[in-house]
Amino acid sequence: MASSKRVLIAEDSSVIQNLARKILEFQNYDITAVKNGEQVMQILDKEDFSILLLDINMPVMDGMECVRQVRALSDQTKANIPVVAITGNARNYTEEEFKAAGFNDVLVKPLNFDRLVEVVNHLTDK
């Protein structure tokens, strides 16, 4: 299955990270998981992914700063990758702020795993 789609999950909660991994692996996605936005930028420099799932509140570099840095990459393929915000405090930001930062969609915690699969499928099947 060489053509499976690759998902990079940045989430500092091991519980959410592991649940999302299991759900998406069941959907035949290849999952890589990291704990913060700085690790996202390091791995994105070396590898290609179909989609990024970024927690908003992470140590070192949060999701808002990370998506801005992804969108500013000189590699246009990587700069235009679909990026989904995962947040437990969506009320801290408006939908417009998420869009302005560069997110394609937002998932609110507690995660609805049906919605997670739906969003990931939609954004990777374009």
Automatic annotation (TrEMBL):
PANTHER family from the UniProt entry: HYBRID SIGNAL TRANSDUCTION HISTIDINE KINASE J (PTHR45339:SF1)
Gene3D superfamilies in the record: 3.40.50.2300
Pfam families assigned: Response_reg
Cross-referenced PROSITE patterns: RESPONSE_REGULATORY
Domain of life according to the entry: Bacteria
Keyword line: Phosphoprotein, Two-component regulatory system
Modified residues (4-aspartylphosphate): D55
Record InterPro entries: CheY-like_superfamily, Sig_transdc_resp-reg_receiver
One example of a Gene Ontology biological process annotation: phosphorelay signal transduction system
Protein's name according to its UniProt entry: Response regulator receiver protein
